[in-house]
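yo, Phenylalanine--tRNA ligase beta subunit is done. seq:
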Amino acid sequence: MKVPLSWLHEHCHPDLGADALATRLALTGTEVERVLHHGVPSEESFVVARVLEAEQHPDADRLRVTQLDVGEDEPVQVVCGAPNARAGITVALARPGARLPDGTKLKKAKLRGVVSHGMILGESEVDIGVDHSGIMELDGDLIPGTPLGNVLPLSTDVLELEVTPNRPDCLGVYGVAREVHAATGAPLGSAPWEQDLGSDGPLEGAEVAVETERCPRFTVRIFDNVTIGPSPHWLKARLMAAGQRPISNVVDITNYAMLLTGHPLHAFDLDRVAGGRLTVRDGRDGDVLETLDGETRRLDADMVVICDADGPTSLAGVMGGARSEVHDGTTRVLMESASWNGPNIQRTSTRLGLRSEASGRFEKGLSPEQAMEAQTVATRLMVELTGATVRPGTLDVAGSAGWDGAHATIRLRDARVSGLLGAEVPRSRSAEILSALGFGTADAADGLDVTVPHFRRNDVTREADLIEEVARIDGVDKLPATLPLRRGAAGRLTPWQQLRRRAADTLAGAGLHEVIGWSWSPPELADRLRLPAEDPRRAAIAVENPMSAEHGLLRTTLIGGLLDVARRNVTHGIADVAIFESGAVYLPAGNGELPHEPHLLGVLLTGAARPATWREPQPPESDFFAAKGVLAHLLDALRVDWSVEPGAEPFLHPGRAASVLAGGHRVGWLGEIHPAIAADWDLERTAAFTLDLSAVIGAVAGPAVYADYTSFPEVRQDLAVVLADDVPAGEVVRIVREAGGPLLADAEVFDVYRGAQVGEGKVSLALRLAFRSPERTLTDDEVAERRSAIEEALAGLGGSLRA
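structure:
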């Protein structure tokens, strides 16, 4: 929602600049996304001028040399290319030194040999319209030399609000003015719908029938003698500043009334309403409607349509139909302002992929009372700007569900206010705040009886909601830091939460960046990952109401999201990516039960394994072993007894894939992404792993047991063994540790050799052994005995010692 301050100040003008007002509103819960400037940077050097002469340029067919009266002794010469430049008209002039909205600074120029002292302006040059056909023609009574800013709204700051779904009242300028009034104390002007030029009672010339529960209220007024034409410049300027494109006076009036009141309207050409009767009903299979955007849309029974004798003529609450739209020859207008069921409008808009200003408002739940507020504003503008005559009477029809217009009254207790906020708020202050926000207040024995206005009916339903209103306006920043009342409760993290945080902290400490991906995935992800038909990760749960086609399924794996993040970074010039994500995936449970939601931890590395330095200008790529190093660092920090064994995944490189075991159970996979799949994401060599964090944490040992670090020396020996190349090194280390017994303090592989000296199909592993006893210095015989046992165990694997 874009709110031009020049428009807002007509209803509430606080003594605050745009930035200060944005901060104040943000502190009360009305989030200001940004402050924009619309129009010219400065109004200096823009003046009213009158064309005294307009002669053909001597060397250009499309240019004219004009002499302008600007209130000075001598006329000003300006070269103009507009076809409507002629003597006698009053125009807008930008003199040398003026800055246009795009930042261009005008200078004295020479066009085809003729000096020009400025520019005669069209609407588009100062952002008050979109007409490019010629220059603006101003009121002939204006005095030449008058600053243009006194005549036209050339410049304004604009607040761009992020309105939450529960506050549709802030989707209108007057609703925002009400918030500003409450937040700043600045006076609030009277509501723009207080004086109605129309009347109640029967309306001749049209009929309306509402045959659906999804339309609580439908109002109609008729205007005769309508003259279609351009809107006045002030109206165009306000629409442009608020993000709306001016079209014609009648259409602009509906948009202006919507932006002011927050409630959409729609104008029908009454002569194009077949039979002079409108029927509001649920759609039917086979209904077809061409909407104002030129698209033909097929409707269904879950949509609401407005029909005339020839069929659907408007898609209720979303967009009007082309068949009955207002056009240049329109002389009679039927103005409709209705209320619709919000969830139904949202479903219709999403299903058709058709978003509009109207649907974005109706889906948030506008009150039926707002329909007549908008109708009243539109009536005044139709009479003033189109020369129309409003026909006596108003059709005001309720749907089958109806609406009673009741206003709930809620008791606001003083004790409850102070108890919930932890600070005293005087009753008089609470009444002042709520009255400023449009609530009715009356004293009660223990507080206030508060009447909820219609525009907050769906938002404020209980006492706590009223307390929130008081707190946000009085100032949440004023509330003291107090602890809530407790009855023996103690706040602490569960063991699961502690370990999950430790895992994230460990990876962040290792230099990885945490990412938070979508909980959804595109339907084609399973094919891109080459998951076989029987893979349970293919059986993704469809989202009934997805935000887009890319979010059509609940995710069953983290790797797709990690690849997307890596691709986005790489394509933006960040070649070295090290990321992780911790989150749930969703696996179908069957039998109508809720899905299983295992919590996974995923890591992805691509690019260099570590930063380049002067000693290592080209560090190694992130490969299987780089990912395994991160895995080891993580699982060791969690104190998990883990190992890896050969494994396979459809999306991993054959021979560079492994299964991760913890506590003897498979808890995840590790490996390099298959080159073809990595290339599909515009990536080169990429390694990754995912772990079922719940299963990993289930394998964490109990409380840590600390042992003395012995002062007795250790005996270190190296051992080289030749084995078949297909014997896993992890299996070798495991056998060595078992054979070494308690005296073998450590065993690790420190070198691998393949070559002619060991023969084809063989590999030499060099192991470093450390023997130590916590009680005594070991003898040579004890070490020799353990070494012999290790050599014998290695022989059982088919290994032989190298000299």
